[in-house]
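Teaching assistant's notes for section 4

Start the section by putting this record on the projector. Ask students to predict, before seeing the second block, whether Heat-shock protein IbpA will look compact or extended. Collect guesses on the board.
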Amino acid sequence: MRTIDLSPLYRSFIGSDHLASMIDAASRHEKQTSYPPYNIELLSEDKYRITMAVAGFSKDNVVIEVQENTLKVNGNRASEKDTNKSEAERKFLHKGISERNFERKFQLGDNVKVLAADLENGLLHIDLERVVPEAQKPKRIEIGSRLFDAG
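Reveal the predicted structure now:
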């Protein structure tokens, strides 16, 4: 098992303790689960799409929540008593489709907003966009200009 020493981040960058703890939390979370599989796609400079393979789940079985900078996707299948046939009555020759409940968390960057979510053909698509407020956009400062009056 690999461990990453994050102490250089703490020494070199002011305010990086939050970044280092996010990296550490992400590496711990990745070891815990790999279900359901997903892709993260860059659609344009500030637009992203997360696609998750959620075969067997309907839109009523999936809950998407955003709290602070965390996107959480939960999948809860109906209990056996709610389905037409119980698991004991079904006979599988091969069972390769997982029907287990899941929870997947994604750490979102600052100013990343969820635009839309769609479930089609067993794939859950979540569209995201980074919207940088005007106050946080880079400003060009002309040499020789005076931003404030010192007097």
